[in-house]
């Protein structure tokens, strides 16, 4: 069975665990660096990226997470997790992990729309996927190897680059597990390729 780790330092951890169990994966809540060895793919959940970054540094996750990415093990960043993956952040001189070739802007949907839902069409996943946006970031620009998977209006809200998947919204907050299933498939394909 495919084992999906959820980085469990802060944020929407339980909800992701439930979503991935429903999507047919075995789930590990990753609280210690050593646990990265026992998983096939990792989810960086939504929450608060600056808090998550502080905890990543505090618990020594920075280099191990970069090594995980360098091994081409799949990573899925949702909302704050997307911010952690991005190579470029609007208004910041340094990225966090900086492993995915995208430019991301934090809290970019404005005050009056701090939280909203929208029906999205997600390439390779399906139609009418309800995206829950909570103080969400969006992807401002993508590099040439990045495939845009979903837009909301004129903004990019989901993208994939090889083993990296990222979205602005919280897919784990609805009962629709199609995006979790998509990530499980990415992980299964990548595990076969590396055998
Ligand atoms: N605004 C948050 C941040 O910058 C992300 C919000 C979320 O993950 N729901 O980290």
From TrEMBL:
Entries under PROSITE patterns matching the protein: GATASE_COBBQ (PS51274), GATASE_TYPE_1 (PS51273), PDXT_SNO_1 (PS01236), PDXT_SNO_2 (PS51130)
Pathway membership: Cofactor biosynthesis; pyridoxal 5'-phosphate biosynthesis
Gene Ontology terms for molecular function: glutaminase activity; pyridoxal 5'-phosphate synthase (glutamine hydrolysing) activity; transferase activity
Superkingdom of the organism of origin: Bacteria
Xref: CDD domains: GATase1_PB (cd01749)
One matching Pfam family: SNO
GO CC terms of this entry: cytosol; glutaminase complex
Catalytic residues identified in the record: 79 (nucleophile), 170 (charge relay system), 172 (charge relay system)
Reactions catalysed: L-glutamine + H2O = L-glutamate + NH4(+); aldehydo-D-ribose 5-phosphate + D-glyceraldehyde 3-phosphate + L-glutamine = pyridoxal 5'-phosphate + L-glutamate + phosphate + 3 H2O + H(+)
SUPFAM superfamilies in alphabetical order: Class I glutamine amidotransferase-like
EC number assigned by the record: 4.3.3.6, 3.5.1.2
GO biological process terms held by the UniProt record: L-glutamine catabolic process; pyridoxal phosphate biosynthetic process; pyridoxine metabolic process
Keywords: Glutamine amidotransferase, Hydrolase, Lyase, Pyridoxal phosphate, Transferase
Binding-site positions, L-glutamine: 47-49, 106, 134-135
Entry-linked InterPro entries: Class_I_gatase-like, PdxT/SNO, PdxT/SNO_CS
PANTHER family: PYRIDOXAL 5'-PHOSPHATE SYNTHASE SUBUNIT SNO, PYRIDOXAL 5'-PHOSPHATE SYNTHASE SUBUNIT SNO1-RELATED
UniProt function note: Catalyzes the hydrolysis of glutamine to glutamate and ammonia as part of the biosynthesis of pyridoxal 5'-phosphate. The resulting ammonia molecule is channeled to the active site of PdxS.
Family as reported in the entry's similarity comment: Belongs to the glutaminase PdxT/SNO family.
Assembly: In the presence of PdxS, forms a dodecamer of heterodimers. Only shows activity in the heterodimer.
Stated name of the protein: Pyridoxal 5'-phosphate synthase subunit PdxT
